[in-house]
Amino acid sequence: MSVRLFVSRDAASLAVGADEVAQSLAAALRRRGIGFDLIRTGSRGLFWLEPLVEVETPAGRLGYGPLQPSDAEAVAVSILAGGAPHPSLLGLVDEIPYLKQQTRLVFDRSGKIDPLDLAAYRREGGYRGLAKALALDPAAVIETVTQSGLRGRGGAGFPAGIKWRTAAAAGGGQKYIVCNADEGDSGTFADRMLMEGDPFVLVEGMTIAGYAVGANKGYIYTRSEYPHAVATMNQAIARARAEGLLGPKVFDSTFAFDIEMRVGAGAYVCGEETALLDSIEGKRGQVRAKPPLPAVSGLFGKPTVINNVITLASVPWILANGAEAYRDFGYGRSRGTMPIQLAGNIRYPGLFEAAFGLTLGDLVEKIGGGTASGRPVRAVQVGGPLGAYFPPALFDTPFDYEAFAAKDGLIGHGGVVVFDDRVDMARQARFAMEFCAFESCGKCTPCRIGSTRGVEVMDRILQGENVEANLALIEELCETLRYGSLCALGGFTPYPVMSAIRHFRDDFMTPKRRFVAA
Amino acid sequence: MTNQTAWNAALAEEIIAGYKDIQGATLPVLHALQDAFGYIPDEAIALVARGLNISRADVYGILTFYHDFRRSPPGRHVLQLCRAESCQAMGGDALADHVRERLGLDWGETRADGSVTLLPVFCLGLCACSPSALLDGRPLGRLSQERMDALLDEVAP
Ligand SMILES: Cc1cc2nc3c(=O)[nH]c(=O)nc-3n(C[C@H](O)[C@H](O)[C@H](O)COP(=O)(O)O)c2cc1C
Ligand code: SF4
Ligand code: FES
Q1: Both A66 and A203 in a single domain?
Q2: Domain range for residue A53?
Q3: Closest to A193 in 3D by CA, of B28, B32, B139
Q4: Phi/psi of residue A474, each to 5°?
Q5: What are phi and psi of A84, to 5 degrees?
C-alpha cells in the first residue's frame, strides 16, 4: 500500500506547526513500513483547521485537522484503515462547507498542488489563458479584460482594461509590467497565499499583460515580511524560464517577456504605486505627484502597467473562460470574485473567495462563525489600516466598492478584521494616527506632522482631558488630512479615526482597560 | 539564530560589485549587505555610493528611509512581533507588553547581552493565526503568553 499525503507549506501553516506535523506523520508511516508520497502544497485557506493533512482516496481527498505532532500515530492508524473514525477527521475536504460555498476562480489550485509543479499547474488549467491570448491580437486581449469588468484589487478598484489601454497607446518603446505585491494592509494575506500557493498563475497573468500592452519586462515588488513568498516566486520564475514560458520566445512565439523579483524594506507607503516605482528605481519610497500617470510615464520614466497580484492573477481565468463568464459573477459595478480575508477575532479565519455582493454580516457571522472568543462582535475593520470600522448595525452592507463607499468605508484589498466587545475604539483610533505617523513618507505636512499631533490629542482623550474639545480638534485634523494629503495614507487615515468616533463615541468618553489574551 | 560574518570591507565591495549591472540596485545591494553582516555600518555608505555611482547623501537618505535597514549590529536572535490590527484583536497588545517587560526592551532595542533584538512589524500576512511573529525569520502563529515564554526561554534565558 502507498499513500499520497498533502500538507501545506504556506507560511501561516508553518506558523502553526505544519512541518512538525508532516514530519511526525511521515515517521509514523515509516515505522509501519508504509510507502508514501508527501506533497507540500499551498494552503486551502481554512486556517482554523491548520495544520491540515489531506490524504488521497478514490472518492477524493480526506482531511484531518487541526493536528498536532502527537496525533500522528492515531492519524496513521486511521489513514491505513481507509479513513477510520478519528476526532480530527473532517471527511472530504472539497465538501467542507466553507470551501464548497466559495467561487474559486483565482484560488482554484491553491492548496491542491505542489506550487512549483509546472506539469500539475498545466494539468489543472494553467497556461490556457496565455495560449488563448497569444492567438489573439493584443488589442483583443485588452478588450477582453475591459469587457470582463475586472477592477484593480489593490484597493482603488480602477478598471484594469482602461489602464492597460492607456499603456498600450503610449508608443512603441520600452514598457513595463509591475506587480504590486507589497500587501501592507493588516488583515490581508491573499497576495501572500497566492504567491506561495500558485505562483505560476501570477507569472501567467503578468505575461498576458506584457503581451497585451507591449512590455517585455515585469517586476514583482513584494515586502521583506514575506520571505517564503519571495523564495517560491523566485523558483517559479526560474522554472518558467527553463520551460520557455518566460524568456526571448514565450511559448515558441516571437513575444519576449521576463520577470524579476524586488523586495521592499519595511515601508507601508511603498505599496502606493508611485512610491513603489521609486523604490524599484532605488530611491526613497516617496509618493510622486500625478500626472503623469504611470501608464504614460512610470518605471524609469517608461509606460508602466502597475496592478495588484490578484488583479493580474484573475486575468488567466478571464482569457481562458471569456469575459462574459467572469462578468456573470458579481454585484453592481463590482464584477467577478474577490478573495476575502477573514481575520482578527473570528472563529473561522481564512480566505473566502466569492462573487461580490455577500453582506458583511454574512461574512462575519455566517461564514466566519462570529468571534473566536465567543463574545459578541463589536467592530469590524474592513480594508486594512486605512479602512473604516463598521458596527454590527451596518452588517447589511454588501461587499461591493460602491456600497462600502456609500457607508463611508472601503473594501480595499478585502481584509475583514473582527473585534469583540473588549475592544477600546479610542485606542484603535489612536493606533490609526500612530500608524500614519510611523509610515508617512514625509512629503505632505498634514500627514507628517498632523498624524503626530493626532496621537498627542488622542492621548489626552484617553486620559479623559477636555474630551469634547479634543474630539473637535481630532475632527478638524481629519479634515485637514483628508484634503491636504497627496496619497491615501494621509488622506484615508480619517476613515478608521472618524468611523470609530461616529459609531463608538462612548469609548472616547469613558476610558477602558485593555484586555489580556485568552 | 542569525548567522552573519563580521564587517569586512573587501567582502562588502565584492557584494556591491555583483549588482553593478542591475537597474535600481540600491535596495538589493543594501539587503545583500545586511544579509551578510547583519547591519549596514556607516563605513558601507561610501562603498555603496562609489560602487553604484550615486552620492553618499542618496545612500544615507535611502538607508534611513526604510525601517528594515539597521545601522548597528542586531542581537543573536531577532524577534519581530506583529503590532497590527488583526493581532490586536487577538490580544496582541497585551502579548507585546508582556514581551517588552520580560525582555526589558522597548521596540527596536537589543538586550545588553546581545541575545535578542525586538522589532515591531505591522502585519506579517499571518493574520488568520493571530497573534503572530517572526523569530529569526521563522513564522509563529496563535501565540499565547506561555508559548512566547517558552520561546524566550530559549533565546534570552
Ligand atoms: C499608502 C498606500 C498603500 C498601498 N498599498 C498597496 C498594496 O500593498 N498593494 C496594492 O496592490 N496596492 C496598494 N495600494 C494601491 C496602489 O497605489 C495602486 O492603486 C494599485 O497598485 C493599483 O493596482 P490595481 O489597480 O490592480 O489595484 C496602496 C495605496 C496607498 C495610498
Ligand atoms: S499623504 Fe503622507 S504618505 Fe502620502 S504622500 Fe503625503 S506624506 Fe507621503
Ligand atoms: S495583523 Fe498581525 S499578521 Fe496581519
Answers
A1: no
A2: 2-100
A3: B139
A4: -60, -40
A5: -65, 155
**Residue contact A186–B84, C-beta within 8 A:** yes
The model's pTM is 0.97
- The CATH architecture annotation of domain B77-155 reads 3-Layer(aba) Sandwich (3.40)
Residue with cell 457571522: A365
Q: Please answer yes or no on whether A189 and B128 come within 8 Å at the CB atom.
A: yes
The answer to whether the CB of A369 falls within 8 A of the CB of A62 is no
**In a shared domain, residues A229 and A272:** yes
Residue A220 sits in the same domain as residue A352: no
- Whether A515 shows a pLDDT value over 60: the answer reads no
Residue contacts between A and B (CB atoms, under 8 Å):
176
User: What number is the average pLDDT over the span A220-247?
Assistant: 98
A515 φψ region: left (φ > 0), alpha (ψ -120 to 50), beta (else): beta
pLDDT, mean of residues A149-154: 98
**Which ligand is in closest contact with the Cα of A450?**
2
Residues A280 and A378 grouped into a single domain = no
Provide mean pLDDT across the span A50-78: 97
pLDDT at residue A510, rounded to an integer: 77
A514: pLDDT strictly greater than 50 = no
CA-CA distances (angstroms) from residue B102 to A392, B106, B116, B149?
Answer: 37, 11, 12, 9
Of A327, A346, A369, at which residue does a domain stop?
Answer: A327
Task: Please say if the pLDDT value at position B3 is more than 50.
Answer: yes
Cis peptide before A339 (omega within 30 of 0): no
d(CA A213, CA A204): 14
The count of structural domains within chain A is 4
Q: Report the gap between the CA of B74 and the closest CA in chain A (Å).
A: 16
The answer for residues whose C-beta is within 8 angstroms of residue A482's C-beta and 6 or more apart is A491, A492, A494
Ligand 1 cavity residues, CB under 6 Å: A 152-156, 158, 180, 182-184, 269, 271-273, 306-308, 311, 487-489
Residue listed under C-alpha cell 549588482: B19
Q: Which residue of chain B is at minimal alpha-carbon distance from A513?
A: B94
Whether A437 is in a domain gets the answer: yes
Shared-domain flag, residues A270 and A301 = yes
Dump pLDDT digits (tens) for A422-448.
Answer: 999 999 999 999 999 999 999 999 999
Which of A158, A180, A224, A268 to mutate to test ligand 1, by most ligand atoms within 8 A of the CB atom? A180
Distance of CA B132 to the CA centre of its chain: 16
The 10s digit of each residue's pLDDT in B54-78 is 999 999 999 999 999 999 999 999 9
Of ligand 2's listed atoms, the one at least distance from the Cα of A286 is 8
Note the ipTM here.
Answer: 0.97
